[in-house]
Queue: 4 jobs
Job 1
Amino acid sequence: MNELHVGKIAGELSLRPAQVEAAAKLLEEGGTVPFIARYRKEATGLLDEVAIAAIRDRLEQLGELDARRQSILKSLEERNLLTEELRGKVDGALTMATLEDVYQPFRPKRRTRATIARERGLEALAELVLAQNPAVDPEKEAAKFVTPQGSAVAEELKVPDVAAALQGARDILAEKVSDDTDTRTKMRDLFLRRGLIRSEVIAGKEAEGAKFKDYFDWSEPLANAPSHRVLAIRRGAAEGVLSFQIRPQEEDAIAILESRFVTGRGACAEQVRLAVKESYKRLLSLSMETEARLESKNRADADAINVFAQNLRQLLLSSPLGQKRTLAIDPGFRTGCKTVVLDAQGRLLHHDVIYPDQGRQKTLEAEQTIRHLVEQHQIEAIAIGNGTASRETENFIRKLGLPAGVQVVMVNEAGASVYSASEAAREEFAEQDITVRGAVSIGRRLMDPLAELVKIDPKSIGVGQYQHDVDQDALKKSLDDVVVSCVNGVGVEVNTASKQLLTYVSGLNAGIAENIVAYRNEHGPFKSRRGLKEVPRLGEKTFEQAAGFLRVRGAENPLDESAVHPESYAVVDRMAKDLGVTIPDLVRDDALRQKIEKHKYVTEKIGLPTLNDIIAELAKPGRDPREKFEAFAFAEGINKLEDVKPGMKLPGIVTNVTAFGAFVDVGVHQDGLVHVSQLADRFVKDPNEVVKVQQRVEVTVMEVDPARKRIALSLRKNAGKPAERPAPARSAPVAKPVSAPVVPKPRQQPAAEGWFTAALRNAKQK
């Protein structure tokens, strides 16, 4: 363990070094983030999952920095360039950018203009000019470097005249300026802090790239550009519609360079001034723009990934209906409604197709089929996918007069088609076609969203923005962290969990998860957590990491149904014995739990945080942290876009939250947009402050555009009243100077827009 890394991370995250060191050691020993956060609180000083994950990620970054540092030192040593002073600079570099800047002058280069000038012997002239002695005439000095007539020097090494000699000297100086570590640091800061991102349409691409029209002539400060606009511009460039550049004002950049390198007056100083300008235009501006593009992309990626991760967490932790006998319907017009019956454990019992809208006879047959299935299988809930024909199907079901206890619920089916064509679906339902598999997925999502959604690639669930444009490795890592956190936070019933769900349990992987399912199928349900040790390849370390997150419902020991880790069972036994009762007595009787004197059970490994967790679990063993399921219904009579009128107040469900607002399903097959300026009476920077995915809301319809199938909504209290009419959307502000006149007003920003256009302008790129 690197002590320097520990100290650095502690400072960055405002943690005690001992906390970072403990977490790093546990991670190094193979501990997972959920396990460390839940069962090693005493060691880490109560660090939560967020802090532990941040330590893990920063350790990886610093490890990569050290690896690059060693690679550079090796390269310098092999080329006999490493001095003690240079080694000190390399060792002292705290960021990758600084490290690369230190290495820049020594990086193996292709044959540059400066290289050629040095080969021609002009290094001495460059140094003379750089000294900027006002008494020195650079042209007279340059004449001394001109190759004499008839010289036997190779043609490519000849200096034909004074102008060529001075140009060669400036080439050398330009490269020196570009390679200077401090200069690169200042220029990098200038580009990121005061650079403008400008985009233009490529000639002839106007019609083809109409969806990027807002960026055909766009400019704003890079530091203020929100992630969705940066990613939109980059997508337009990737599709060959836009070109863009990131540059500060040229005079500002050159002024910085001149202040550093032009230190005198006279003819030599003028040559240095020319070299500085050449350095910026030919070298620095290009390399700094490349870095600015990369840095802005990384920032935009991080923001977009964070939005996706927050949305995914809310979706995965949606309220489960629970183990109910369910009839699930995947609606359709021409091809009919695929209908399946699932038992309380989600097993497929029956499948059929009904045609409720294809003539009177077909409608009667559909009615008879549904009534028969509900009665025969004692159906407790009906799940209807929210795609095509969903509201029509819902109305059909609600008019059947089914028993009052049967809940009818609309279910978001995003990604169901992806699951139905997946290897997991083919493996589970090899004999069924994809339509049956899709209907099964809809039904299971109602029963337990988490257990079903983990079978789908998170990117296919549809709760992000620009997920296909961001760094895919970073996205996968972030989303995997979210899934792991949710799965382990809820806990997994080992006797009913799918292989896919078990894969996300702390300490398990796909191979061990498959072995658990195979062992369960061969030997029957696990009767205790101890039984897991019989599973092939599930060793002591794996058991330690996983056991606390696995539940065995109906086990002889009630602790096997709880989040109490087996390593703490002995403590609970002592508690029960000291009170003269059994563990089941402790679970049933709150008065007994109140008598437990926690300080008596504190040891070196088990402190009060763990003891508090244990007693909380005894009160509600294996409790589900998700909110209780509540039925939801869309407004009656509002089934299609034409039914929606401005001024209406409608119930809806948030389906996606982005940086520019939230999308809400109001039951008309077309989500409406609540622009960020309409999320609350006050302006909010982060939409997640106000709404979450799957949240039930009441929205006011502001405007409807049937031709473009768009609905503008509001969550503001007085939305729709003339006096409360909102100002144009803030998501597209006219870019203002950062510190006038350093950053000029951007060119041709869109004029003040009508409310509807402003509210939906950014949604075009979703």
Note: The longest helix spans residues 267-316.
Job 2
Amino acid sequence: MVKAEGILRLLIVDDSLTDADGVINALRSAGHAIRATREQTISAVEQLLAGHTWDLLICRDTEESASAPELINLLQRLDKDVPCLVLLSDEANKQNLFNCGAKDIIMYGDIQRLQFAVERELANLFDRRLARRNQRALRESEKRSQALLESSRDAVAYMHEGMHIYVNSAYLSLFRYDEVEDIDGLPILDMISMDDHAKFKSIFRQFSERADAKPETVEVQCVKSDGTVFKADIEFSHARVEGEDCTQVVIRDDLDNITSDEQLQLLRDHDLLTGLYTRLRFMDELETVVTNTAEGGSDAELLYIVLDGFQEIKENISLGASDVVLKNIAEVLRKQRQEGEILGRYSDQVFTIIIPSDRENEVDERAEIYRKAIDGYITVVDGKDILLSCSIGISRISESVSTGDVVLDHADKACMEAQKENTNSIERYRPETDNQRLSEASSEKWQDRLDDALKNDGFCMFFQPIVSLHGEEQEIYEVLLRLKNNEEDGELGYLAADEFIHHATRLELMGEIDKWVIRHALEKLVSHRKTHPKTRFFIKLSAQTICTHEYVDWLCTSLNAHNLEGNALAFEISETAAIENLEQTKAIISQLKKVGCEFGLEHFGSGIDFSQSLTELDVDYLKINGRFVENMAKDAENQAAVKAIIEMTKQAGKRCIAEFVSDANSLALLWRLGVDYAQGYYIHEPSKDLNYNFEDDDL
């Protein structure tokens, strides 16, 4: 199934709903059945890419919050095989986009060229997917053949010109050899009694000279490695291994194999010391996950855990004691395991874990739990404390990963980087690209700057009133975050949130930033309520906070500490983030309402099918996407969109807020359309002071 159900899964990154619809209609007219999603920010695109399978990404050269180079870097970082087409609005931008990694750059409005490029890229994409499927099928076939050989009770070997090139476990056991290397390259005549050499050579020569010869059997005396002689039947047949002609040899002795199939499977699947999956069984599980991911399943991640300095520890204690340590470490890992996670002992001091999650922050948390569990383990051997630590490499299992070996190689490389940096640490594998290397310095700089802002109050809050047009009279301010200026920002006193939030999201700092805002907002609210007791704050929450289980408990503690009720606050989250984290959003809305808080959806109407938000989420407010409201008096299409959203909101029994009100005509239109609340620069600019006069609200 190269193309799921004939549906083209399209991700559009564009701030214009009209333009996105134009692209969709152009592709539908070419015969494609479209399932499209539109987004505007890097963080939202990253969530969509991580959690779903896409066939095509189309973006605009004018999109500042999610530029084409950033999007292509994101695709490379997540290891996603999704072709990216850039729609060009300005010919002058074309030169700068040639080296960004886009599959094509097309002038917006050139429908024929767009349709042609989409057909070409989809054909190439489906060819790549088909090739990966065929490779997986071939590997699966080879793996099954190998498994059959290894599990066979018959002793099986392959020979080339009379020399062993492969033997199975039963063959080794029959001749009492310990390792494959002991028999590799050994002539088969060395396994035959001298008395039967002439007989064996005669029959084998006659068989080898006839390419079409049927399988032939000879009865001879065989010799084990310890000199023991036994009678056996040797069957010859022609075969090919890795494209080379060879001879398959099957030896059956007169002794019964008393080991049951169940016992053989148990020995193959489970490590005798730790009880975890063996390397063979773990690789089977890993290949299954790789295949499922490539067939449209969710991404997963692999943890590659190496015990630091374990060889040195083994040298200082007995072999038996080191085995006890490994067994106990396996038990430590098993206790931390969550449902769905797959544990294995990959080698002596290496443990591997498959985590069925496509969210990097969740996997990072799981890796940290495992790291701490090992770091906290102490055992006593011969009166000495044995302290252990580990280094962990993480690699992503995505649709473009061809084999489990590739995933392991990536995780191993990440683990080596962790050991280079510092033992007892965690590193994630990232495919290196030129653009990524160029951005590393900037990323580190933002990490330092945002960390410093959190520690030293480098942020600042501004407040913008939300005023009633037809809704209940309230004194509401939206809390807006700013970052204090540094020398590189020029003369501006503060950076607006959209200039740094995407960096904070990528660095997974939004949870701490949200807490900073709430702590300082509560202090400000307590002070202001002494003279204005009805004042309430609207506060934005990030997707990272929505997915944090202990957030509501922390909020309740903070409210109690400031002697505030929950109804003093209303929280909002973007519509796209809410839909992408639907279950978590539902849960936190329910919890916040029990506390007394209200909840709203920001940028409502961003999604192509935004009616789902009204159906799924029990919110109190819907904030109309400001791009529809801004200058709506001059744009009939935006007016129609705003009117439709207001009508939907009223039918659902919600209250609607229009943001980005920028002129008197737009405000008058909103009044006539019946919007409940409005905010924007025309009404009042954001200010560090809570100085709006709600009682003199003559709009």
Note: The radius of gyration is 33 Å.
Job 3
Amino acid sequence: MFPFTHFKKAPLTLLSTVLLCCLSLCIPGKAAEDAPAKQNQTADRGALFRDGNYAMFIHWGAYSEMAGRWKGKTYYGVGEWLMSPYLAKIPVDEYKEAVSQFNPQKFNAEAIAKLAKAAGMRYIVITSKHHDGFSMFASKASKFNIVDHTPFKRDPMKELAEACRKEGLGFGFYYSQFQDWTTPGGGGGPKQDASGQAVTFDQYFKEKCVPEVNQLTTEYGPITLIWFDTPGNMSREYSKQLVDLVHKNQPGAFVSSRVGNGLGDYDTLGDMELVEQNRTGLWESIDVSNDSWGYVWYGENWKSAKDILKFTISTVARGGTFMFNIGPTGEGEVPEPNQLALENAGKRIAAYPQLIYKAEASPWGQALPWGDAVVNDGKIFLAIYDLPSSGKLYLPGMRNVKVTGLNLLTEASKSALSHEQKNDWTIITLPSKRYDKLLTVVEMTVDDIAKIEPAQAVDPQIRTILTADSAKTENCKKRKLSWMEKFGEWKHAQQVENLGPDAYSRWEIDIAEPGYYKAHLAYKGKGRLVWKIETDEGISIQNQQGSSSIFHEFPIGSIRFDKTGKHIISVSLLEGDSKSVGLKSLILEPMEI
């Protein structure tokens, strides 16, 4: 993986690599829209990607043994970038010497394949060569590989490929095609060989990159996916050569959009990026188990089983595929909290496979306050993450839709549920007993799914978040922000900016129950700011609050809705430093007066 942010005092080759990659990620969907490779796909190419919707990503290498430490100092950031000028600045010779001690004796390919299968994942993609240039397989093009350069003397890629076939899983490789910090000519690497002769990128590409990709796609059995990364300033000719090579050797394999120049088979979003609105086309979200792709010794910020379920189901509900990363230790083991969370989430996926496999996007176009929904085989499956205490589940946009079947699913059975129709809303009554604290699933059939009207549903029981991504703007604009918490730990958000007294962020909302709602705004900015929130019923509130350099939620006041049905609610900034302000969301929370 690669981070992108403001870089200073870095070698020009690596700086240009990262910044160019940054530009490609700042335009989500471009690779998918421009992908001519799709025109010649075979009928079965990418079948596991299209239907499986859930995969395991593995970042593992000699950097896993270093675990974020170099010469007694901890460098906080993604572990696989430890060598880079942005973290430990390790010289090539010193790095190669350290790698020579890599000996992951506890690596067990069968155990990892079994974990992926237990988690409900349909294929595995693992780092065969990351930006450090170290090949985690028996490379014929470079002696800087795990078999020739370390005491391990085994090819873990071959072992994992065989284990995946045994477990019925697909298998694929991550390969850093441009960046190679230890090979002369590679992006960010030495400019001269050992004899002092100048080496070009073209030499590196022909002598290492292409031969290794050819080896990976001819000697490891059927390949599901080749996940290239950081194309840098590679020309279209280089990218096309890699795509053609993969498709020639593995006609059924997909190539990721990060091969560059719009030539991938599908689009990959930014690192750790999840989306809030449905997207069309073939695309994937990728995320980490904690804060780093590669293992770091301090990385204990583990995602829970519920987190994994929410991220997976909601990515599928937006129309995408989810690839979730693990970072084994330097010894080759998966950390226990990571393993337990995956297995726990996997039990729910095994019980409710309709939520993932061959599932299609939600007819509501976005998550609902209590959870999400997918469509599968003509039925709607509701995934409830936060079950209201009342047992009432509100579904918006249902005025012209007839519910023809409604069942609560459990691991062992299904039971019929009752519902009522009230204006635009279908209200489902769930039993008071909580069957599963992580996930409740309801199966619903209707007369015509296409008649469901996507709506900003304001739930009368639990807080509703109206995101900037779903807002309409007047005299202001929306913009996507991406930033790092630590080096390589990416966060993403849509914000509305350039707000003012006559510049509004507006949402069309559907109110199920009239009454009072506590209004909060999540924003960032400078100084004290005066906000106004107003409805189409002529009711408004305004208040002054402080601000923060990062997004923070501030209470504004209580606002009333007198009627059920459709409303317009708008937010404007009356006073303050408008140029510094970014509005992320409006939150409405029902309250009793």
Note: The longest helix spans residues 201-216.
Job 4
Amino acid sequence: MDIKEILQQVQTYDEVGASVKDRDKPLKDYAGLTANELEHIFDIMVKSRRILIEEKLLTRRGESYFFIGSSGKELVDACTGYFLRPNDPFFGYYRNKTVDIYRGIDIRQKFLECIGDPRSASTGGMLQHAHSAHAKESIMPQASPTGSHALEAAGVGAAIANPAPISQQSRYPGGRWPSDAIVYCGIGEGSTSEAEFARAVFYSVFYKARCMFAIYNCGWAISVSVEEQFPDGDPTSPFEGYQRFGLKIDHFDGTEIKEVLKHLRDNTDYCRSGKGPVLEEIKVVREESHSGSDDQSFYMALADQKWHYSNDPILKTAKTLIHDGVLTAEQVKQMYQKYDEEVSRISAEVVADRQLKTRDYIKSLVGAYDFDKARQRWKQLLGGYTGDRKADYKKYHEMGARPSAELPENLGPMTLRRAMNYALFDLFLTTPDAILFGEDVADFSGKMKFDIEEQKKLKGKGGVFLVSQGLQRAFGTNRVFNTPLDEAGILSLGMGNCYQGRIALPEIQFLDYMSPAYQQLKDRICTVHQRSKGQEPGNVVIRCSYGGYKQGAGSFWHSEANLGTFLNIPGLHVVIPSNAEDAVGLFRTAVASNDPVLFCEAVALYNRREWDGVNIERPYPPLDYMIPFGQAKVYNEANRDLAIISYGITLPMCLRASQLLEEKGIHARVIDLRTLKPLDEETIRKSAMECARVLIVSEDRFPGGVGPTISATITSSDAFGYLDAPIGMITAIDARVAYGPDGDRACLPQMEQIVAEAEKTMAY
């Protein structure tokens, strides 16, 4: 409803009650709030509506490029702002503007956000407005994929519920939020049909998290009725069984202030007490269409349109407060006039002074990685450790958590699996902030987690490939634990712990199984830095095994190396070590990078000591050893006949191929990229220019794969003019890897192919 019509109805409203004399006295009918508190809530509602009206005007004038309404949600949001603590994490959606206003976000910031100005403290102009992010106010970065934020909210709730301590070296010393913080998630009824919402409610129950899910039910998801979303039109029905485990389900009218206040007080008290999470189904109105590109008059019955319009919560609240003597019609008018002038003035100032985003500015927000800062961060983590490392190794060996009492750097060359196990152990020893979880990563599960005497009789598992063996035994079940088999949930738990201040190490068992988690990875974790203007890091190190060459045991869904898929995600570092020493150095950089990292560990290299005679074991490096991202390693740099570029599993093959080529009089250098994003473009181009002939070997497939990306790095630069032959390329065939040794041989690059293609390139 237009605010002027509201004022007109208020001015003619004649059911005026006696004025409340003691404005600081709790009022029973208003859940114990005072008249002054109610006046503040209503003031925020009017302010929010006036800003919304201006946003609509800016869109009509072409000064803003997007409009999405929040009329009808102001009452619930303002009251929610009252009952939540100022630092309770708030995961809103694009209708929750009033919470921003309640938490103190000023008018100027809302209009900088509205027109996409880079000076917006919220998004830096990266997103459409109504997708805010304010770290200091615990307004968590919003995104458009509907329902995705609910799973992240549940991850934060689980992270807060985890009693594992957080150090003073953390980004948030001691933890960002206290143990009784409520995680509030606002969501539209249509978005609750997303699978991620269902998992979010499950996890809030499973982890006994203090989460409140508020479903703002206006009955319409764009033009789809809620009756076509759920059998009974009730988004809470699928979760009724969870009430056995503490979930509270509540329904109330979000247009009636007394009802809203009563239910919100009861629900926040219940949730904060730790009795269980809360699921609210709140009846609200939708006065505007879904967005500026929608027109609900095309499909909503006239009677329904009238109901939504006439039940405007600002009008109803104004009448209720006037009836009870809390406000007068004149006060309501003065509130509007105050904001009408202020909003108009600030809007005009912001538009007149608008600034534009540049290419360099946008690129600067994609990630935070800087190697010098990563080294400083790693040094800071090491500095927080005050124990005796040698004595600790002895202690953990005696309890069965270490295979040896010796420090790993004294053990000589080791396999990649063993080195990664020690790298994880050293990280956990150094800082209590490290936390590792995923499917099958713990030493023990179920009742065995707590049966210490029985554990002494067993080795413990520690992952399908034993990479995390001994970690849970040494550091406890709050820091190393199994999760439900749900990759999206694993990554959301990673982001939740990152927000809370921990070093999150979620494990996806195989790269093949990243698909269910793709939205959490691509749309949330990897965008958080850019969509929050750098306020929030996404430093989640996602460990996963990858690749084939499993002696025939791989096949579909256990042999994927489709890393080109992940190169196309802005903000994500893709790291592929080919040996033990590199794995440790790159892992430490990943931990300290402040960005999301996909850390791929080749299953075929885990336990290999050599590959066709090429020794691939390496010594464990000193604790301060780190490797920068985007810095390749060059073998036989003096050789200039041919440059063979590879990474990961195929790197040892290329080294062996170079030995065989040497016997044929072809002197090849081999480049181990080590990270695929960022690529060491300088070394790639330099090698192409110096050798004039290039062979790329990649386990990825050709279409959209790593190989063509490397090739384009050469052909799109001056290096192209130095080539004496077309770039040779060997990739996996365009098929999923077939079962058995014959499947590996047919589908994946083989040694004889590398040698043959090298000779072909040399003969051109």
Note: Residues 633-763 form a domain with the Rossmann fold fold (CATH 3.40.50.920).
